Amino acid sequence: TIMQAQLHCFYLLTLYLTTGYGQEGMFSGPLKPMKFSVFEGQEPSQIIFQFKANPPAVTFKLTGETDGIFHIQPDGLLYHNGTLDRETRAVHKLEVSALDAHGATVDGPVHITVEVKDINDNRPMFLQSKYEGSVRQNSRPGSSIGTLVARDMDEENTMNSVLVYRIVDQSPKSPTEGLFLVERYTGMFQLAKQSLKKQDAPQYHLTVEVSDKDFKTLCHVQINVVDINDQIPIFEKSDYGNLTLAEDIAVGSIILTIQATDADEPFTGSSKILYRITEGDSEGRLGIDTDPQTNAGYVMVKKPLDFETAAVHNIVFHAENPEPLVPGVKCNSSSSAKFTLIVTDVNEAPQFSQQVFQAKVSEDVAIGTKVGNVTAKDPEGLDISYSLRGDTRGWLKINHVTGEIFSAARLDREAASLYRVQVLATEVGGSSLSSTANFHLTLTDVNDNPPRLVKEYTGLFFCYPLKAPGSLIFEATDDDQQSFRGPQFTFSLGSESLQNDWEVSKINGTHARLSTKHTDFEEEIYNIPILINDGGRPPLEGAVSLPGIILAVVFIRMKNKGKDNVESAQASEVKPLRK
């Protein structure tokens, strides 16, 4: 329409006047990658460029980081209709595509970069609204107090972000103005003209300005004048006399309150008092805590007192400040005091040297062998009598005088590999007080258990007459401690006369197969003895009897070599293993 044509001409005229691209077609051209620079803060409706379409392209499309500000008209006029802000986005990456009448892309998209140029539109700001520092009295001029820090959001390393600091006010102005200096470009704060005295002013309030070329910001700075430590702590009395305590007084008990004073400024490192014991407590049984409000010292028990170690302690303690004294000032005898601690005896139970005693022996040690010993002492030096508690198997006995422990019966690792008992130490005479400790005896294994069948095998038979050789599988075990590989048993027939009819073959370390070698068997019960060897040190061999049954009830007998006892399983219903 006529109105749109007039608007288009207005845009072109604006582009010509604002960008200087009016010559040689620099304000318009074909679709290709381009880079533009636009200052932030400009009024909306600013034309950037006029793209020309080549047939069959008839219109254009804009995508990318438009932020709802950048637009393109169908005829290729690229413009922005909002105010740009470099601090929000410094570079906008756009893409322009040329489309045909059907909306299909015929050219592009091409990359269009718009850099937003900085203007000074941000006020410098201090990181804190108030700064606080301190300077010790008598500090030399030039002493550093701290650094003020401000930031400007405008582009770094440009005139827009160069900041300048200066002091605009000092209160109070005594003894003179200009007592402080802030470095113009770094913000470093320091003492300027002369040393300060707290008597003149304990505190100064300053107003500091930071500015760039267009904006200014103020902040408040508080400078505290800190008293120097030129006064020593002085005890209110030098001797706190004698103090008598029982040795069983509870740890943590406060036993004495001491007091020193300091004439330096209250509640500072120059006047706070720390108490330290310098003599009479080499084992650190006492400690002193300071009341932060009154500087009173509370002497307390940190470790149990012990009459038997030392009955009398001549305690000397010293008062000092966490802040060092100024040169030329030293503590003297007024900063030290003493008291005498007298510890009285209390009858105490015997004390074991440790709470758990451990020993290790082989399970086959002879009865009466020493397997360990325990030790305890009575603080008062009384004799001690030892006894056992919890010896449920009756395996041990203890020498009541020496604390030596002996085996009293045959030990068995398979029954208890770790045997635990309590030992009781009772003082002889006095109050017969007692205490307990634990004795743990670890038993190491010896090969003392022959192999045996893992279960009772009953109800096994072969159908008569045999049509093919038959077999059955059985499993063996052993109660001794096994290696990580497990048992490695070997199996053999117990009689050479059986070798024509039967055979035993090993399957693995615990299983074997008993098989018939032919089918020509009579209908009767066959007792097949089998030897199982564990290969241990020394090797033990178990003899078991597996009845091979032909249509009959079953009995299983097991016999340990070297023993006369025979275990017989009860008859049970026969169950076919193979037909």
Automatic annotation (TrEMBL):
It is a single-pass type I membrane protein. SUPFAM superfamilies: Cadherin-like. GO terms for biological process: homophilic cell adhesion via plasma membrane adhesion molecules. It holds the Pfam family Cadherin. Keywords: Calcium, Cell adhesion, Cell membrane, Glycoprotein, Membrane, Metal-binding, Repeat, Signal, Transmembrane, Transmembrane helix. Coiled coil: none annotated. Residues 58-126, 127-235, 237-352, 353-453 form the Cadherin domain. The keyword Manganese does not apply. Gene3D superfamilies: Cadherins. PROSITE patterns: CADHERIN_1, CADHERIN_2. GO terms for cellular component: plasma membrane. It is found in: Cell membrane. GO terms for molecular function: calcium ion binding. Residues 1-22 form the signal peptide. This is Cadherin-17. The lineage of its organism: Eukaryota, Metazoa, Chordata, Craniata, Vertebrata.
